[in-house]
Amino acid sequence: MEEKKMGQNNQPAEQDLNQLLKVRHDKLKDLQKNGKNPFQITKYDVSSHSMEIKDNFEFMEGQTVSIAGRMMFKRVMGKASFCNVQDLQGNIQAYVARDSIGEDSYKDFKKYDVGDILGIKGEVFKTKTGEISVHAQEVTLLSKSLQILPEKFHGLTDTDIRYRQRYVDLIMNQEVKDTFIKRSKVLSSIRRFLDKQGFMEVETPMLVSNAGGAAARPFETHFNALNEDFKLRISLELPLKRLIVGGLERVYEIGRVFRNEGLDTRHNPEFTLMELYQAYTDYRGMMDLTENLYRYVAKEVTGSEILTYGEHEMDLSKPFERITMVDAVKKYANVDFNEIHTTEDAKKMADEHHIEYEDRHKKGDILSLFFEEYVEEHLIQPTFVMDHPIEISPLTKKKPDHPEYVERFEFFMNGWEMANAYSELNDPIDQRERFEAQEALLAAGDAEANHTDEDFLNALNIGMPPTGGIGFGIDRMVMMMTDSPAIRDVLLFPTMKTLGGKDQ
């Protein structure tokens, strides 16, 4: 076994680390010289995984199995040794004896390092201390580790290194691996739910000439072959609505979108969005779908309809609260926008409450600012906030009885916006007027306003049925399902600032 002299942060001192790395390279050269190059092995037949063996020991005791994984621990004791092998499911002990695998193989095994990837074939048994193990009959070196893993008792705790070297993070921190296994389950359970509801999964372009469908600054690039500027999509909305026009009545897409904005615990410039559109329903139909979807996914992924995130417990089993934005602001800010009739009155109220706004903002914008300031943090239990002002909802159908508001809701949990849904605007004349208003905002300096999309207007002119649509932030959903404190904890490869001009 390698002897490590530890420096600060429980890592080998630099000169000792260099020596340890040299020893590993020398071992590889010896293996290659003796015709035992592990990198020439192309496959290994794995019959079982660690937890499968442990969970089914009463049936598997005495059976011969083949396991494979990374050696995380080794203790050599003369003619017999123990090692711990980590695979996808967890880890399992292997008992390696000279008399069982042969003298030459045992001599090789004693030279193997923590971090090496092994294949072990042997019989399932339980040691005198009750440890379920594999009694090795064959040990095969499948890959030689030429780097030193973090010291095992302290693990990998440096957050920056964890995000930059996620592969090491997955090796050293089982809870991290569990998070990403759950992320995969979230996605597969969403797809199962929607498939049962008759939705069709589709794919739409990431590289677009007009990045619309959301209020966000896009990333821009140049396509040399056409000598044209393109953008990375900020939303999935407009192409999916074109498919509704084309007669695909229930469609959804789960994909990456890109917004040229800041980084924080809930925002990454590249993130996963799901949008779905259903013909012949409205935003209330989307509320029902959201409620049922969240319950289904929570039960599938966590086994419960009660989610715990930090200090909060959220009950998905009860009907989700439904409240208008005006009533929410009245409830938490004690300001009734039903009694505020002009933009000037709204700005005066904002001044009295020390809420900052811009000259271009109108009454509806001020209402939204009050909501952000006074309401969001209180929405811990699942809540639908409905009926947004038209000023902040350029793609949404107006409420027939209150045309300054629209049929839109945002879904909140834990004080976070989790989803955004509309009764989709399908009036091409109204939509053109909304685009013109957005163009005026662009001209006034609002970099997040939408450009007019003529092809989308043409699609609406052809005719789009009444439609409900919704967008879910998948990363936030995974954060909630895994009690993860930051979005980077649920992204395998989060966006990081480069070090020395290179990705580290």
Main sheet characteristics: 8 strands, mixed
User: What's the end-to-end separation, in Å?
Assistant: 29 Å
Dominant shape:
elongated
CATH architecture classification of the largest domain: 2-Layer Sandwich
The radius of gyration over CA amounts to 29 Å
- In helices, the fraction of residues equals 25-40%
Q: How much of the residues is beta strand, in percent? A: 25-35%
Which stretches of 5+ consecutive residues score pLDDT under 50? 1-10
Give the count of helical stretches: 16
Report the CATH topology name of the largest domain. BirA Bifunctional Protein, domain 2
CATH superfamily of the largest domain: Bira Bifunctional Protein, Domain 2
CATH class of the largest domain: Alpha Beta
Q: What is the domain tally?
A: 2
Mean pLDDT: 92
Number of strands: 20
Widest β-sheet, arrangement of strands:
6-10-11-20-19-18-15-14
Q: Quickly give the structural class.
A: alpha+beta
